[in-house]
Design brief:
Blueprint: H1 10-23, H2 25-28, H3 31-59, H4 63-87, H5 95-123, E1 126-127, H6 130-149, H7 164-188, H8 202-212, H9 215-249, H10 255-278, H11 282-298, H12 300-311, H13 321-337, E2 342-343, H14 345-363
Antiparallel strand pairs: 1-2
Length: 365
């Protein structure tokens, strides 16, 4: 009898190597070494996805997707705050805005669009629970407007910035909305976030999941997930100067740095969502996407805002007219596309088209 492996070796070896070579950067610092660290960063992200899915398997839906969204948010907050505090200059005044706006656009148009296309190519149509998606959309729309659009129209401070009092109050309101959504998702209306074809078997699946996965394995995965998240933040911060130098040397806008950070942060979420869509679980893909978007703006920005107020670091949140048009268009298209409880390939193609336009006008403003 062949004994099943506790974990695949790479999910342990790569994060451990990443920690070791992170501390060796002062000795081997070079362009090739930075490339090697980048590969370890990506490997640690993939390992983090694996361990988060192991934990999610035990917790069941929608707790699993909520856990992954929270894990991604920890990476995002840690990365943005570490860069802002490390630099402490006007060069990072728009970093949080650029990163969060990029994350929202990548999720709404890129991740959801590709998930719909993948699912439609294989299954033609996929169904989801409309109540859960509509609940997530109305919450996300409100928080997005509070954080990224409203700052442009307040008069207490110019340049798309809130005053410290405004920032603190709106951060608390946004945090309350996110926590309210989390309570709806996990307790009051949990059934809204379970795939229609799985609702009848949800309880049986949850019981079987709990029996199949030992507590020791889950706690080991929790420990490995913390290691993965920690090293992702540290290596990403270490490489941020190289990324910024590369962007500036290419003559590209500095906002590209936010897009790159958001892309790294959302890689685990995207891979998990694509895999779910391929397995005819579009509900899980949407839970991951909307949960991550809400956590990215409803949890990340309040955390960053509180720290910026305490440390005295300025933070611009208001996006420009071009970004506002793209954001409003994305919210409108996705609201109309998901209004029927079913997906088809054209909805995904349109969202991917908006995503490509967003990337193009960011590089070529």
């Amino acid at each position: 009898m062949i004994k099943q492996k506790y974990f695949p070796e790479w999910t342990i070896i790569i994060p451990v190597m990443a920690w070791i070579f992170y501390f060796a950067d002062a000795v081997f610092s070079s362009g090739y070494y930075s490339l090697f660290l980048t590969l370890l960063l990506l490997g640690s992200v993939l390992a983090g996805v694996y361990h988060s899915e192991v934990i999610a398997h035990r917790l069941g839906e929608p707790f699993g997707t909520l856990l992954l969204a929270f894990a991604i948010t920890v990476i995002e907050v840690g990365l943005i705050i570490s860069i802002m505090i490390g630099t402490k200059g006007l060069g990072t005044i728009t970093l949080a805005r650029d990163t969060v706006f990029a994350a929202v656009m990548i999720i709404l148009t890129g991740i959801i669009g590709i998930c719909i296309v993948i699912g439609s190519l294989r299954y033609r149509e996929q169904t989801f629970t409309l109540q859960g998606v509509s609940t997530a959309l109305i919450t996300l729309t409100a928080v997005v407007v509070f954080m990224l659009i409203l700052p442009n129209y307040t008069v207490s401070h110019e340049g798309g910035e809130y005053t410290s009092f405004q920032l603190f109050f709106i951060a608390l309101v946004s945090l309350a909305l996110y926590l309210g959504f989390t309570m709806v998702q996990t307790m009051r209306h949990r059934s809204f976030f379970i795939s229609p074809q799985n609702k009848l078997l949800a309880d049986q699946k949850e019981l079987s999941n709990n029996n199949e996965l030992s507590r020791k394995k889950m706690f080991a995965s929790c420990f490995m997930l913390i290691l993965c998240l920690g090293i992702v933040v540290l290596i990403a911060k270490l490489l941020s100067k190289d990324v910024e130098h590369m962007v500036l040397s290419m003559g590209a806008p500095k906002s590209i740095v936010g897009v790159i950070i958001a892309g790294i942060v959302l890689l685990p979420e995207g891979l998990a969502a694509f895999r779910a869509s391929k397995n005819d679980q579009i509900q899980t893909s949407l839970n991951l996407a909307f949960g991550s978007a809400l956590a990215s703006i409803g949890l990340s920005i309040p955390a960053i805002a509180i720290i910026s107020v305490i440390s005295g670091i300025r933070m611009t949140l208001g996006i420009d007219i071009k970004s506002t048009v793209l954001l409003v268009l994305s919210l409108f298209i996705i609201t109309v596309s998901l209004a029927t409880g079913k997906t088809n390939i054209m909805q995904g193609v349109v969202l991917v088209g908006i995503f490509l336009i967003y990337l193009f006008v960011t590089v070529v403003p």
